[in-house]
Amino acid sequence: MNRFYTMIAVLVAVGIGLLLYLMNRSSSPAVPVQVAVTAADTAGFPGYVLGSETAPVTITEYADYQCPACQSFEMVEFPYVRERLVQTGKVRYVYRNFPLDQPHRWARLAAHSAACANDQNKFWEQHEAIYRTQGQWSPSGDAGAIFRNLAQQGGLDLTAYDACMRSLKYAGRIQASLDEGVRIGVNSTPSFRIGDRIFAGVQPYDRLKKVVDSLIAAGGAAPAP
Amino acid sequence: MNRRMAIAVLCVGGLFVSAYLWMFKLGLMGTIACGDGACVTVQLSPYSEFLGLDVALLGLLGYGAMLGLALVALQPRFAGGGWPVRWLALLAGGGFLFSLYLWYLELFVIHAICRWCVASSILVTLVFVLAVFEDRGRHRVTA
Predict the structure, then answer these.
(1) Rounded to a whole number, what is the distance in Å from the CA of B120 to chain A's nearest CA?
(2) Could you say which of A1, A19, A140 has the minimum Cβ distance to residue B16?
(3) Contacts by B2-5, CB closer than 8 A, 24 or more apart
(4) If you measure CA to CA, which chain A residue comes closest to B7?
(5) pLDDT tens-digit profile of A121-157?
(6) What ipTM is given for this predicted complex?
(7) What is the pTM of this model?
(8) Three-state SS letters, A42-105
(9) Neighbours of A106 (CB within 10 A)
């Protein structure tokens, strides 16, 4: 009987050791912070665009994939914005990265994953999946592996995705997007640039609609926030 | 090794499978070693929760309870059977039925088979079969 209990104790110890090993195993690359931005990083890239180029109003969102408020906007408000403002031709929607590295260590990697999905014309699918699963990868020790799984579920070519992620080729673009946000006065996420004004924090659909409607009616500058 | 010992060993295995899946849900595990990504599909689906509780957590609690019962059943005073064996069979029966429900979801609703869930369902089925034999043996002894 004692030998049996010893065997159970050994099994438990091996199991715990295995779980600890799996917890600490990380294959996520690190996207460099404060990377030098080159002209090639931003050339011809206005952000991730949704909607008609000729829409009368452009909303530019500056957001961080690891920010809970950004997730809340994406999950709750954005579907209405997309359906009722973008798809109706009123708004051209632009998403730009604004990663807050402290305390969001995976924000740049998430942004890079979405950028790599964009290479395969799957940006918005990966974007939505990353926000939807924020609760899983945000506290994770290996968020990159979860992003890869999401890419796989989304039907991306994983060979190309992996090569893109390893190259970190969009690190400069992400930094440029952050720099641009800082330059125009963004200091929290999510923030929305509409006309020449910045609206900070989660904006309910109704509020965005009012701003958009008044802008269309006025045909000029955005009203005061 | 007798049947109760085998049940205890199987429950330890199930305990770690459940712990692994639950730690993934908590975001502590990065990804699941699964090969084709089906485990992530299953774990991130709405069906990974049952009555507001993570299915993996339910598994952890279930295997923990069955392990506890198996260890109690190994005590000499329960050599002829008793409530631990009966409860073990009932609990394993519940786990077996729940695993059938999960099989249904994976095959016909989620359309993805999680290998870790398959491993868990095999373990709980073996525990159930062994527990039923053990319980029947008890009835034979007491008859």
Answers:
(1) 15
(2) A19
(3) B3/B130, B3/B133, B3/B134, B4/B70, B4/B73, B4/B74, B4/B85, B4/B134, B5/A4, B5/B70, B5/B74
(4) A8
(5) 999 999 999 999 999 888 877 788 889 889 988 999 9
(6) 0.78
(7) 0.63
(8) HCCCCCEEECCCCCCEEEEEEECCCCHHHHHHHHHHHHHHHHHHHCCCCEEEEEEECCCCCCCC
(9) 26
